[in-house]
Specification:
Protein name: Cyclopropane-fatty-acyl-phospholipid synthase
Keywords: Lipid metabolism, Methyltransferase, S-adenosyl-L-methionine, Transferase
Structural class: alpha/beta
Strand order of the largest sheet: 5-4-3-6-7-9-8
Helix content: 40-55%
GO molecular function: methyltransferase activity
Family: Belongs to the CFA/CMAS family.
CATH topology of the largest domain: Rossmann fold
Radius of gyration: 22 Å
Organism: Legionella parisiensis
CATH class of the largest domain: Alpha Beta
Strand content: 15-25%
Length: 393
Amino acid sequence: MNQQIKKIATDLLHSAGVTPNGNEDWDIQISNEEFYQRVFNEGSLALGESYMDGWWDCKSLDQFFTRILQAQLDQKIKSDKWSWPKLVWLKLINHQSKKRALEVGRKHYDLGNELFKSMLDSRMNYTCGYWKNANDLDTAQLNKLELSCQKLKLEPGMHVLDIGCGFGAFAKYAAEHYGVSVVGITISKEQFDYAKQNCSGLPIEIRFQDYRDVHEQFDRVVSLGMFEHVGYRNYRTYMQKVRDCLRGNGLFLLHTIGGNQTTKATDPWINKYIFPNGMIPSMEQISHASEGLFIMENWANFGAYYDHTLMAWNEHFEQNWEHLKKQYDQRFYRMWRYYLLACAGTFRARTNQLWQIVFSKNGIPGGYQEPLFTGIKKRESENKKTISDFELS
């Protein structure tokens, strides 16, 4: 049986241009022959766990995943025997309830700020950068912040809600450069503590709060990389809450990873080790959730830039591993490397997207004008806290 499974798996990998124990960087090097049976039985969960266990290795994991996803091997090697009970469980349980939402904060975002400081840009953005005319992570993330502010059409004195404020990067940038006040909410204790310190002295309030518990109104609402934690059962609730929080002429910017197909399940390895109860929305799900609540003014896709962002994060992680390994073991190293590079492969293969969607509550008179943004150029010093220090290139 094992030999038959090995042949099937080898043939599938060959169809993606991958040779087990081959010479290319994307070829997997298998050190335990039980690998084939394990992956055959348990699909993507076993693929990730067997890598963590050292059963196989690959010099270029990102290229490996790009190839198998482009060949759609993820659909061919899935184990179907667990699908029915998983779907029943998903229907019975709201995996993104307030209580379960806190699990995401504890398991992922509270891994330790030292890890994220070693991986992210200097402003601690844990979302996709905008790499147009950018050659480094810091510039790409600065571009993303500026582009987001321009899409929101921020003006001095506006009151902004930042749902899933992370380490406070957007709130700080918007307050410093656009003269707005911001309420940032997070369910991560580590992010809450960091963001409060990061934004001190500015008109910014950081709260340890679930989005469902916000009751004020704002001129603008922004959510950068949080919607993936909402879950399909709560998409409509989320959109209704945002509408309730927006004043009549308000704008809402949603920045989220998106999937090419509608699903109500999540990758089991990602769910177990990285983002508990996470879920990637589709165009259909977002449209259905927002229908009748908003007017969609602009929908942009720069998913290919997430590949660049993840590769930069991995480069920083690798460079700083000597320091980090005092706090994290080798199994964590393999898990985190697998997470970053596998995700990079999904964006390079274009199976995942990154969407920025601008919604208005009642429609913009005369229509919404998309900013003609191609990247930031420094005029003088980035330290000067005024938007006049920057110009569009």
